[in-house]
Amino acid sequence: MQNDGGRTAAAAQLPLEDNALGTLSLTAGTADHVSRVRGVLAGNDLTNPGLDTVTLASWQRCYRDHGLDPGAAPDPVIIPRADLRDRQERYGRLLEIARPEMTNLYQQLAGSGHAIMLTDRDGVLLNYIGDPIFTDTAAAVGIKTGAVWSEAVQGTNGMGTCLIEQKPLVIHKSSHFFMRNAGLTCAAAPIFDPNGNVLAILDASSEATLAQQHTMVLLNMSAQVVENRVFFCGMREAYIFRCHSRAEFIGTLGEGLIAFTPDGRILAVNRSAMFQLEIKGPEQIVGRALSDLFSMSLPMLLKRAQGGPAFPIHETRCERRFFAKIQAPENTGRPALAPVLRPHPASNAPALPLIPGPFEAMHFGDPRMQRNVATIKKVLDRDIPCMLFGETGVGKDVFARAIHQASPRRDKPFVALNCASLPESLIESELFGYKSGAFTGANREGSRGKIVQADGGTLFLDEIGDMPVQLQARLLRVLEDRMVVPLGGDKPIPVSIQLISATHRDIRALISTGLFREDLYYRIHGISITIPPLRERTDRRELILKVAQAQVGPAVTLDWEPAAMERLVNYPWPGNLRQLRNVLRAVTALCDDNRITLNDLPDEVRHPPRAIDAPAVPDEAFNALGLAERDALLRMLEDLHWNVSLVAKNLGLSRNTLYRRMKRYGINPAR
Asked: In whole angstroms, how large is the CA radius of gyration of the chain?
């Protein structure tokens, strides 16, 4: 390996017209990077450690095909706003599909300084969710919506190089062509359309010192989720042949998908199916009959679309055994929907239908929930504070996230803080942040706090009724001034947030007892939404079917014994939707042959506890200590699925004593 001087000398051997040395004012680090790239391009430094074949090929393209010079990085290219709007409109349905996965990936990597990005097939950045820690770096290198990150513009980089290589990759630090980008670690994965063409690139970039493998794994999984969703949306009017060599992998990211017409002609195939069938591209099987690939007649295959467990099937070429399911076309009864990509002269993208909006899974016909959704839709673009009321477990957090995803702030962070889950001493630092050394045990780098993390997006304060009174004054000041001062700091930080609050408490009763500030209540109570408990909803049956199906995935068809369904519908569900999900998660895992019977239900559902004839007792009937004991008892009952015997054992009480306390606090398990 040559030393720095050797690399510089090697670069100098390039003809002036080839390496365009010019007169450059370079720092030592910049000069070293430029010298290394030029040395490699001159053929004198090919054994440099860490130089892989992907990086070498990209550097050569940048120099040979795009005429780029590592020592003369051009300014970032940002397309005009009108062009960006047009692209986002054409890719609108894809953005809707990808947004939840980008948010989920961002949350999994939260706090590690990552930015999650989605580009179109031209390398134009369409959506960007960035950790506040990464804000300054993103601005410096030109990471913003509308920026062009193709290789021809930005040199070797995760998004642009992935567009060309069409495979997952990591461009780490000095593997970038330009020194301006050499502080980045970029993991990128392609998203293909059903025709096998690159549709978009999903990227996770940070300033991480090491290229972290788990980031690449999470990113690739997210890209595969988006890609499969695009496939199902694009082929919803076709039959889908879902296959894998192992039956339990059908319905997972690794399943093979082949779309075909009612007469058996293959329309499209996903990457997993191509891998399993050992074919190089869709063109090898698209247009052929599905019966050419698998030894089963078309009538038998179509009959399998009526449901049932995975069935064995053999490939005709090598006699290999697979397991498969057939998914019938969706019969929506509606006119054709808008595509994921609107037709455009420069685009050969497939026409993919619209997917459900954020609120469509909130209810299935319940009038109160319909009114809630209609109300909130009217104020989505007004930045009016919203308060969500409802019992524990009714889905206030899910509704809050749906508000964010439907709002104009959906491309920015959604940051949640449960005010009841943190000790009083930690809420202040979690919410407002702190400077380095602000208190004993503080992080050396300090903390930005939840409010600053939510800048530009949505801050969700769950169980705000449990926020200490002294912190309520600080929160009120932030909401009035739109400025945050971290603990130990003196410089205000401007913020722009949409505030959503939630509580199961009676806020007016808390105000009357001095436990909640009246001025804060009027500041955060712009609009109120009350989410009904599950026992009062008229769409319980549909909710049960939807939640159960979500536990097993779309590939599994559940069979319900009528008695089991009736017991679930009529059960009072004291723990609401949270309890319903936990029960159905266990039931669907334990049932035989995907048939749910009465015997599969847990004891507390099959044999509900005896009703306790105690009237509901308002919060104001208790002092602060009584309220605290009542809330703690409610949480424990909910955590243990209202198993009174187990709660009594954990508390060291007899069941009769526990029932007396529940009666005293107006806790009725039958409700």
From this structure: 29
Residues 160 and 248 in one domain: no
The residue range of the domain holding 638 is 619-664
Question: 226 and 241 share a domain?
Answer: no
Residue 124 and residue 14 share a domain: no
Low-confidence ranges of the chain (pLDDT < 50): 1-28, 332-340, 342-356, 442, 611-621, 670-671
Q: Is residue 348 domain-resident? A: no
Q: How far apart are CA 347 and CA 362, in angstroms?
A: 35
Read off the CATH number of the domain in which 580 is found: 1.10.8.60
Q: What is the pLDDT of residue 297?
A: 87
The dihedral of CA 609, 614, 615, 620: what is its sign?
Answer: negative
Give dist(CA 325, CA 338) in Å, integer. 28
Cβ atoms of 97 and 226 closer than 8 Å: yes
What is the per-residue pLDDT for 473?
A: 86
Let me know if residue 626 belongs to a domain: yes
Cβ atoms < 10 Å from Cβ of 12: 14
Tell me the DSSP string of 556-591: ---EE-HHHHHHHHHS--TTHHHHHHHHHHHHHHHS
Report the pLDDT value the prediction gives residue 47, as an integer from 0 to 100.
56
95 and 151: one domain? yes
Q: Are residues 574 and 556 in the same domain?
A: yes
Domain count, the chain: 6
Q: Are residues 590 and 494 in the same domain?
A: no
Domain boundary among 530, 555, 588: 530
Q: Distance between CA atoms of 504 and 485, rounded to whole angstroms?
A: 29
Instruction: Please check whether residues 522 and 538 belong to one and the same domain.
Output: no
Nearest to residue 277, comparing CAs of 287, 269, 268?
269
What is the rounded distance in angstroms from the CA atom of residue 41 to the CA atom of residue 19? 9
Per-residue burial over 311-333, b if 16 or more Cβ lie within 10 Å, else e, is eebebeeeeeebbbbbbeeeeee
Could you give the C-alpha distances from 482 to 14, 131, 478, 492, 493, in angstroms and in order?
56, 20, 5, 9, 8
CA distance 3 to 32: 10
DSSP string, 433-455: -B-TTSSTT--TT-B-HHHHHTT
Q: How far apart are CA 42 and CA 58, in angstroms?
A: 14
What pLDDT is recorded for position 436? Answer: 65
Q: Using an 8 Å Cβ cutoff, are 557 and 325 in contact?
A: no
Q: What is the pLDDT of residue 203?
A: 95
Same domain, 132 and 86: yes
DSSP 64-126: HTS---TTSPPPPPB--HHHHHHHHHHTHHHHHHHHHHHHHHHHHTTTS--EEEEEETT-BEE
- The confidence score (pLDDT) of residue 2 equals 38
Instruction: Count CB-CB contacts under 10 A for residue 298.
Output: 16
Residue 310, phi-psi category: left (phi > 0), alpha (psi -120 to 50), beta (remainder): beta
CATH number at residue 652: 1.10.10
User: Which helix (H) or strand (E) is 267 found in, with range?
Assistant: strand 266-269
Evaluate whether 500 touches 414 at the Cβ level (below 8 Å).
no
pLDDT of residue 603: 85
